[in-house]
Design goal:
Elements (H helix, E strand, L loop, with lengths): L7 E3 L2 E3 L3 E3 L15 H12 L4 E2 L4 E2 L19 H12 L4 E7 L7 H4 L4 E2 L14 E2 L2 H20 L4 E6 L4 H6 L14 H17 L7 E6 L11 H14 L3 E5 L7 H4 L6 H5 L7 H9 L13 H7 L8 E4 L5 H9 L5 E4 L1 H5 L3 H6 L13 H7 L14
Parallel strand pairs: 3-4, 3-13, 4-6, 5-6, 6-9, 7-8, 9-10, 10-11, 11-12, 12-13
Antiparallel strand pairs: 1-2
Length: 396
């Protein structure tokens, strides 16, 4: 049997194989954040398709932290019944499901949250919407920490098997731990220890609301690729060690920032025409010029986060590591797990194109995934179009 189909535990939860559906913004929840039929259908397909661990993405923990128009919410108790339906459809097909908890921080818009978005510091204008974020007060910081804890409690009530904190891609946790975003001089910034304080407090608060048997994991940026220095691989390795010492149950390594370096997150083709459609009309000419300059600079390199995994894995004392980023070949998946560089293979775009991918690999019907990294699926969600493979055609 391939090592990819051996079971592995995260905390006290046993995952039937080594495949993880990496959290992906779906753009198909209800406007109020409730789970839709489209969400249920998407994750039932993935569970039927054999994915061992499914992580629905970007569940926002607070109304002021809503990152996307059609994102899924976990910010109040009204969300629980729909989330319970979601866990049920995954469990019906012997899958496990971890909820990814997120707060947008500065990475949202006034139209979505009703105020100028807030972050650790009033630094760096948003390159798309041009605002400077409001610097969070002590009370606002504590309110968001509390919101993560309350969302964790709702996750448990809805039947989730575990939690993933979103500490990557430029969202609030990432903002606090990154020197690019965090320029505070109080206890929440300055030194690496102070920048780490926010995620530490989120971990501790979240633990209070979880059953002892429910694992708590995190998605961590290992390189922000921001215009000025942010999280580096060395800093990520230090944070990973501290997280392991805090008792985190799993770490997924990723990279990039959704606003400042989005193509580092999803290397491949730059769908210029499709991305430009998401901009206001007055921005499209300059947007087209800027994005056209990106073409050819982010061609897919398979396993582009592997070096990060190799550095981090020896320092986390046996904590399971999930590796995401351009994984396309079955033999390289097997080699990565057999070599001990990662415990789980995490993918997003391949599962968008092939929900039945794991079953096909198990049946030895394929050696390489069919996703060509055209990135039109991700351009779709930027246009508030539900995520699916649009390689052959893109909605007009």
């Amino acid at each position: 049997m391939s090592v990819l189909f051996t079971p592995q535990s995260i905390g006290k939860v046993n995952i039937k194989n080594r495949f993880v559906q990496s959290a992906t913004y779906e753009a198909c929840a209800e406007k109020n954040g409730k789970v839709s039929d489209a969400i249920l259908a998407r994750y039932e397909k993935l569970a039927k398709g054999g994915v061992g661990l499914i992580i629905p993405g970007y569940l926002y923990v607070h109304p002021k932290g809503k990152p996307h128009r059609f994102g899924t919410g976990i910010h109040n108790d009204e969300m629980i019944p729909g989330l319970k339906k979601l866990t049920d459809v995954v469990h019906q097909h012997q899958g496990k499901i971890f909820f990814q908890l997120n707060h947008a921080g500065r990475q949202t818009t006034k139209a979505l949250v009703g105020q100028t978005p807030m972050g650790p510091s009033k630094k760096w204008r948003d390159p798309i919407h041009f605002f400077l974020p409001n610097e969070m007060s002590e009370d606002e910081i504590l309110e968001t920490i509390k919101a993560f804890g309350q969302a964790a409690g709702r996750s448990a009530e809805a039947g989730a098997d575990g939690i993933q904190l979103h500490g990557a891609h430029g969202f609030l946790i990432n903002q606090f731990i990154s020197p690019f975003f965090n320029h505070r001089k109080d206890k929440w910034g300055g030194s690496a220890e102070n920048q780490f304080r926010y995620v530490k407090e989120v971990v501790l608060e979240t633990r209070k609301h979880l059953p002892e048997s429910m694992p708590l994991t995190i998605k961590l940026s290992t390189n922000d690729f921001t215009p000025k220095p942010g999280i580096t691989l060395e800093l990520a390795a230090k944070y990973s060690q501290w997280l392991a010492e805090l008792g985190i149950d799993g770490i997924e390594v990723s990279c990039g920032s959704a606003v400042f370096s989005f193509m580092n997150m999803c290397r491949g083709k730059v769908p210029v025409a499709e991305l430009v459609k998401s901009l206001p009309k007055w921005q499209r000419p300059i947007g087209k010029m800027v994005m056209a300059k990106l073409e050819g600079k982010y061609d897919l390199e398979e396993l582009y986060n592997l070096d990060a995994a190799k550095l981090i894995k020896p320092n986390i004392n046996g904590v399971p590591l999930m590796l995401v980023g351009g994984i396309r070949t079955v033999s390289k998946m097997e080699e990565t797990v057999q070599s001990g560089f990662a415990d789980f293979i995490s993918m997003s775009r391949p599962f968008i194109r092939e929900p039945n991918l794991v079953n096909r690999i198990k049946a030895k019907k394929i050696d390489i995934v069919s996703c060509v990294s055209c990135n039109r699926c991700l351009a779709a969600v930027a246009n508030d179009i539900p995520v699916k493979c649009y390689n052959e055609n893109f909605p007009k």
